[in-house]
Amino acid sequence: MPGLLLGDEAPNFEADTTQGRIRFHDFLGDSWGILFSHPRDFTPVCTTELGRAAKLAPEFSKRNVKMIALSIDSVQDHLSWCKVTALGRPQGAACKPSQPWRDVCHIPKRGGAGIQSRNGEFSIFVERPTKCSVQEENNIFAVPPLAERDINAYNGDQPAEKLPFPIIADKNRELAVKLGMLDPDELDKDGMPLTARVVFVFGPDKKLKLSILYPATTGRNFDEILRVVDSLQLTAYKKVATPVDWKPGDSVMVVPTLPDEEAKKLFPKGVFTKELPSGKKYLRYTPQPE
Amino acid sequence: MPGLLLGDEAPNFEADTTQGRIRFHDFLGDSWGILFSHPRDFTPVCTTELGRAAKLAPEFSKRNVKMIALSIDSVQDHLSWCKVTALGRPQGAACKPSQPWRDVCHIPKRGGAGIQSRNGEFSIFVERPTKCSVQEENNIFAVPPLAERDINAYNGDQPAEKLPFPIIADKNRELAVKLGMLDPDELDKDGMPLTARVVFVFGPDKKLKLSILYPATTGRNFDEILRVVDSLQLTAYKKVATPVDWKPGDSVMVVPTLPDEEAKKLFPKGVFTKELPSGKKYLRYTPQPE
């Protein structure tokens, strides 16, 4: 992939995300990982994609794959003015209940609440927990940002549900450039390219196992992403490869380097060799091993 | 993609292929193009992939997409000793009918035929056309190389049918390195990496529109490749984008830069806007335009 080739180690970048600041290797831990970029919040294809990704999060989790999205939006800014401080820790001046941020951040019309500014970032405090969509996290009540709420709504979920994965805010395009993620055909109002639809799959060794690079106008196929994750994980641990158009449960191919005798022992369900004009015996199938 | 980012122009390389020497830009002409690499001839997944690609060739052709494969095999060597010179132009010494090349190259047991050597390349001549699998091309009778015959046999076709696309012989890995196609986890007997399963899709402007990079052990999904070609071509000519998991015939998204009024005119089948918590009106669907 752009900037990253097969076998390259993931850069151990630091970044701000919708779930706080991360260092990428710490985020990955010993898991598999999928880093996927999208052009922009509040755009149509991205919303359908992140909605589908959110729906599939349990499938990725079951496979021990950590998900993290990325766009060049200032997710940090976006979040910062929606942060709600913890109960009993008012940090700013109260402001009128009619202010638009109450609606935007799902703050109830009544009750003490206010906006504070600190180091140029805005945050919101409330005086007591409410029945609204405020969720507690690290002693901070965080309200999902607007884009997240749109994604949930797209899925038919409660707008206030939390996305099951963080989104990296790559506002200055540092990661996008480093990882070759930009789409020169999609420009923002300043004429700067947006991020393309990239997928990087990393193994537990943090090395790149697979990537795809689609332009902004072509939404990805998340069934295909799950399919290749299944193939990567199966072939990482078994001496098999998956043929064209393989789906989980289909027969697989025995890797060419494995001698016939060993293959027979290793695959007790049987190895079936297809006859070929060359007379070579390399087209060896076996049912998918457990 | 490795070595190539979205919007990069395809390098105008020269290369030997199973259909002769090409210059890439001339090969592409004004068509769309798909360049796809595989690790090695005579290996299982590659055979299933090229078999499927051969079956789908009419679909790509219908979409004005030229196909060309690539591996680090010496396809040139492979072919050169299978070349059969034209009728009446014997260029070498006759040799015994029992020689193995007669079987390998589908030369009939009887009839004048011989092997010639010229500039270090071997070719085969026959004295008259035969009923065997020899095909005329540019006044040269060419017999498909072994790998091609295996691929056809895999498909259940006549072994002697010609693959509907050329395969580049990148013996010295020059293109593989330049285009970032190598898979460090798949080594040949000399410990050198093989080519991964890369797909580059180029537009008629010869610029990269999309790429995928799968390792040797994960066979590709050619339905997905056709799907994205359909998306790329639709979105290149219409002001739409295709949502996640889109398939031809499904509704598409109106691009965000198109004002509502213009969208209504441009898409007479109607534009449907989904309500979202943010209140923004960007999730606009329309039936796939003709």
TrEMBL record, chains A, B:
Residues 4-234 form the Thioredoxin domain. GO terms for molecular function: 1-acylglycerophosphocholine O-acyltransferase activity; peroxiredoxin activity; phospholipase A2 activity. InterPro entries: AhpC/TSA (IPR000866), Peroxiredoxin_C (IPR019479), PRX_1cys (IPR045020), Thioredoxin-like_sf (IPR036249), Thioredoxin_domain (IPR013766). Keywords: Antioxidant, Oxidoreductase, Peroxidase, Redox-active center. Its EC number is 1.11.1.27, 2.3.1.23, 3.1.1.4. The keyword Disulfide bond does not apply. GO terms for cellular component: cytosol; mitochondrion. It catalyses: a hydroperoxide + 2 glutathione = an alcohol + glutathione disulfide + H2O; 1,2-dihexadecanoyl-sn-glycero-3-phosphocholine + H2O = 1-hexadecanoyl-sn-glycero-3-phosphocholine + hexadecanoate + H(+); a 1,2-diacyl-sn-glycero-3-phosphocholine + H2O = a 1-acyl-sn-glycero-3-phosphocholine + a fatty acid + H(+); a 1-acyl-sn-glycero-3-phosphocholine + an acyl-CoA = a 1,2-diacyl-sn-glycero-3-phosphocholine + CoA. The keyword Transferase does not apply. GO terms for biological process: cell redox homeostasis. PANTHER family: MCG48959-RELATED (PTHR43503), PEROXIREDOXIN-6 (PTHR43503:SF4). Belongs to the peroxiredoxin family. Prx6 subfamily. This is Peroxiredoxin-6. It comes from Lamprotornis superbus.
